[in-house]
Write a structure and sequence with these properties.
The complex is a heterodimer of chains A (about 150) and B (about 750). Chain A has about 150 residues and is an alpha+beta fold. Chain A has helices spanning about 25-30, 80-95, 100-115, 115-120, 125, 140-149, and strands at about 5, 10-15, 50, 55-60, 70-75. The chains are: A alpha+beta (about 150), B alpha+beta (about 750).
Chain lengths: ~150, ~750
């Protein structure tokens, strides 16, 4: 079985040892994309969020084998212009404390900014319900994300 | 990485500031584990209390990829616990479900799991106790040295109790139950041990790298090796990440195999073996005169230590006495016991014991106000501690803005009431609540030798100024605060400053992050170091032939050119001189300053379901001068939301066999974006002359009054007092039933 992904714009063939394993493991251990975090491994916390074909998904719930040909974007692959804006907004509004949840939220923010139909239909608090943050109490993240919209 | 290890250590990682964290560039322990590192896992007890009768590791060792196994015999004379060394690294007697029995090291994850499965462990099941009452009734001790299962007793009697009692005209009393809550930090516990020639390097997120280096250093020395501790970025802790048996398991494997080893706990393992807030039953009564003078307070506490002693003793003592310091009582009597059970070991958790005792005290103060027909804010105001007071427990109050906090909340509630007439119906009831809090900035009793902080400033050959501190960045903004103070004082560009925190090989000693002390102690050390550095620059300037008042940045530049950066190195320190080591009963001026707060909220209670919704929340804090308003607000909002979780939702559910029923985020009900409530954060500044630039600290206080504040609001809305946490819809509904307050459509069924 051959599985090839496009990760952050680069084609990468998944070695046999990572087929049948989680996308999260492949990204972190094989590609060294440690911006993708594991908080729970159960789809509860959103720290491992990546974009698959532009849609946010928990990389801890996806097996590499089913992703052949897909386009994956991690925080490392978000455009520099976006990251500059996002990190400036985080600093301005105090949206980062320990920062462990932040990469997942950055990916969500990029998706929000791209603005699909679900995005306009729902409030940020609903859209980000799957991203836990134990530190901030959310208020300042909401302010930063609102400023980015 | 294989047998060949580099002989020297990698350069200490710089702690990440906000912009880097926002870009996903922070490096937490798990991010530093290279592929090929030996992985470690544990076989855990499925029983709450059982003697291990036999262990067979042979089958496991035959599995390809399994490298070694460790059993309790490998750690026989080692017991962990900063405040009561009673926790084995691997145990012959399991004392909670999840207690580690055998550790396995393997070259990959699959081999590790198969190795653990292949272990044969036989148990002789013993009777267990998962509540303090069961533990007190149990006819056998969980630890042989504690025959009645009481790990520690505290007693604090102050003032003339007999005389005071005579003056009391009204008593209010109640028994309150608070729950165990996991810290639920987002980064699970992770440990990496790197092996160098004669040295082991422990990489792990912790509150106190220096203490770990000391404690484990002695053990490792017994193996003929040296130890350094490196603290990478930390993905939250809130009082959980101190000593842990997994550290020693990894150190032992690394030493034995001469290879780097790592262990990252899966979330479920982290929750069942992680630690929780200390659950308490608090029986309390408070007496006052008719005209509202608070006279006497009596407290009895039964605290659930869990299987082993973390910081349970300090937490229990704090719960017994700290909140007393908010008011001018005439006499106090507190008795507390900390009881071993077969629950997951408890730990300190943001707020120490005060969120628990505030839940009791601040409800009773409201109860008194009602009985005496005095406004609850007015009652608190009349009895509030004042600057210059020495409290019955020996706290010397410096700056104190409690009254200002009370006034601010009074103002917010009045305005809100006026502007938002609430549509109270039979079913939906609205109510307002308030609660006060106080907290110590440090705890002189923590380490009897000293409570001191140091910081070094050194210029690197390229002209970057390196800040070295034994303190850690746990998410509270330490990096930005330290860099900000130094940059400001020396008029340097923030970009030219780098921080190295918590690397015990290179940085000066720091006691670590507890009791919200880092900003205060580290801030003062930063100011001292900056002053010394400026003087040094002045001298070097003259030496190089520049005017003595040359800008620091230019002196550094000149030093780079002249190749004399090595000379620019100083160490500053701070150690308060007016604090005292408390006696056994907790008497003493334990902290160089104290913080104060009042919270207020408006809730809506659905009497048909018991669901409480927080409509609006105000948090007023006296934290001295606010050094970084955005950061301070972050601590307040974050603390309040954690407090709302503690108040309304989070708990540790244990079945009758001692198994945790909800070891995951969803089942534990950690707050999500959808639970975000509007919180207004108000700072009522005082000037604390002991603090860095007049500041006090803010990390812990915001969680303390929350549960009490919400409980008082529920009472205001419904007339039903809240005796237990969390105040879930079910329990609030039960309290409404008991009071006869129910929506008409539900009273029928
Ligand atoms: S790690 Fe994937 S959702 Fe938590
Ligand atoms: S900043 Fe720590 S979990 Fe969000």
């Amino acid at each position: 079985m051959q599985v090839t992904l496009r990760v952050n714009g680069k084609l990468s063939e998944v070695p046999p040892s990572f087929i049948g394993r989680r996308l999260l493991d492949y990204l972190r251990a094989e590609l060294g994309l440690t911006g993708v975090k594991e908080g729970c491994g159960e789809g509860d916390c959103g720290a491992c969020t990546v974009l698959v074909e532009g849609q946010p998904m928990c990389s801890c719930l996806l097996l590499t084998g089913v992703l052949d040909g897909r386009e994956i974007t991690t925080i490392e692959g978000l455009p520099e212009t976006f990251l500059a804006q996002f990190s400036a907004a985080c600093a301005e509004y105090g949206a980062v404390q320990c920062g462990y949840c932040t990469p997942g939220i950055a990916v969500m923010a990029a998706w929000l900014q791209a603005g699909g139909s679900e995005v306009s239909a729902q409030p940020i608090t609903k859209l980000l319900e799957g991203n836990l943050c134990r530190c901030t109490g959310y208020q300042q993240i909401i302010e930063a994300l609102s400023a980015l919209q | 990485m294989t047998g060949e290890q580099p002989a020297t250590s990698s350069p200490a990682p710089a702690a990440a500031g906000v912009p880097d964290r926002a870009r996903g560039l922070a490096r937490y322990t798990a991010d530093l584990i290279p592929p090929g590192t030996v992985l470690v896992g544990l076989a855990r007890s499925p029983y709450a209390h059982a003697r291990v009768s036999s262990i067979d590791i042979q089958a496991a060792l035959k599995i390809p990829g399994v490298l070694a196994a460790l059993t309790p015999a490998d750690f026989d004379d080692i017991a962990l616990g900063h405040q009561g060394a009673d926790e084995p690294v691997l145990t012959r007697v399991a004392r909670y479900v999840g207690d580690g029995i055998v550790a396995v090291a393997a070259s990959d994850q699959d081999a590790l799991l198969r190795g653990i499965e292949a272990l044969h462990i036989d148990y002789e099941i013993l009777p267990h106790a998962c509540s303090v009452d069961d533990a007190l009734a149990l006819d056998q001790p969980l630890h042989p040295a504690f025959l009645d299962n009481v790990a520690r007793r505290f007693s604090a009697e102050r003032g003339d109790w007999e005389a005071a009692q005579k003056r009391v005209s009204t008593w209010v009393e109640g028994t309150f139950q608070t729950q165990a809550v996991p810290h639920a930090y987002l980064e699970p516990r992770a440990t990496l041990v790197r092996v160098y020639d004669d040295r082991l390097e422990l990489v792990t997120g912790t509150h106190f790298p220096s203490v770990l280096a000391e404690t484990y250093g002695e053990i490792v020395a017994g193996w003929g090796a040296r130890l350094e501790v490196v603290t990478p970025d930390i993905g939250g802790s809130f009082g959980a990440k101190w000593e842990h048996p997994t550290h020693l398991v990894c150190l032992a494997f690394a030493h034995r195999l001469r290879r780097d080893v790592a262990m990252v706990l899966p979330r479920r393992d982290d929750m069942i073996s992680g630690r929780t807030r200390v659950a308490m039953r608090i029986q309390m009564r408070i007496g006052a005169t008719d005209d509202g003078e608070l006279i006497a307070k009596e407290t009895m506490i039964w605290a659930d230590n869990g299987a082993y002693t973390g910081h349970g003793p300090s937490v229990t003592l704090a719960a017994a006495i700290r909140m007393d310091n908010l008011y001018r009582f005439s006499a106090l009597n507190a008795q507390a016991q900390l009881i071993y059970t077969n629950n997951v070991p408890s730990e300190c958790f943001r707020g120490f014991g005060s969120p628990q005792s505030a839940f009791a005290q601040e409800q009773l103060i409201d109860e008194l106000a009602e009985q005496l027909r005095i406004d609850p804010i007015e009652l608190r105001r009349r009895n509030a501690v004042q600057p210059g007071d020495t409290t019955l427990h020996g706290w010397q109050v410096g700056s104190c803005g409690f009254n200002d906090c009370l006034d601010a909340i009074k103002d917010r509630i009045q305005t809100h009431r006026r502007e938002n007439p609430m549509a109270t119906s039979d079913r939906y009831r609205f109510g307002y609540g308030i609660a006060g809090a106080t907290h110590a900035i440090s705890n002189r009793g923590y380490d009897h030798r000293f409570d001191r902080d140091m910081m070094s400033l050194a210029v690197e050959p390229n002209g970057v100024l390196r800040i070295e501190s034994g303190e850690v960045e746990i998410g509270c903004g330490t990096v930005d605060l330290f860099a900000g103070i130094v940059a400001d004082h020396l008029e340097l560009d923030r970009e030219r400053i780098r921080l190295v925190l918590g690397d015990t090989a290179t940085v000066p000693h720091g006691l670590g992050c507890f009791a919200s002390r880092t900003a205060f102690f580290g801030g003062r050390a930063a100011l001292d170091a900056s002053r010394r550095f400026a003087q040094l620059c002045g001298r070097l300037a003259i030496d190089i032939g520049l005017p003595a008042d040359t800008a620091i940045a230019s002196v550094i530049e000149a030093a780079v050119t002249a190749n004399r950066t090595m000379e620019l190195r100083v160490t500053g320190s701070y150690e308060p001189d007016h604090v005292t080591v408390p006696d056994e009963s907790g008497y003493g001026n334990i902290s160089p300053a104290y913080t104060y707060a009042t919270h207020g909220c408006c809730v809506r209670v659905d009497t048909a379901t018991g669901l409480t919704t927080v409509v609006c929340y105000w948090a007023a804090h006296d934290t001295g001068q606010v050094l970084n308003p955005q950061r301070a607000r972050g601590q307040v909002v974050g603390g309040v939301v954690q407090g709302l979780g503690f108040a309304l939702a989070e708990t540790t559910l244990v079945d009758d066999r001692g198994h945790m029923q909800n070891p995951g985020y969803l089942d534990d009900r950690v707050a999500t974006f959808a639970d975000a409530v509007p919180i207004e954060c108000i700072f009522t500044p005082t000037f604390e002359k002991e603090g860095p630039r007049g500041a006090k600290t803010i990390a812990e206080p915001p969680i303390i009054p929350v549960a009490a504040c919400v409980a008082n609001a529920i009472y205001d809305a419904t007339g039903a007092r809240q005796w237990r946490l969390p105040m879930t819809p079910e329990w609030v509904w039960r309290s409404l039933c008991a009071k006869g307050v129910l929506a008409p459509d539900r009273t029928a069924d």
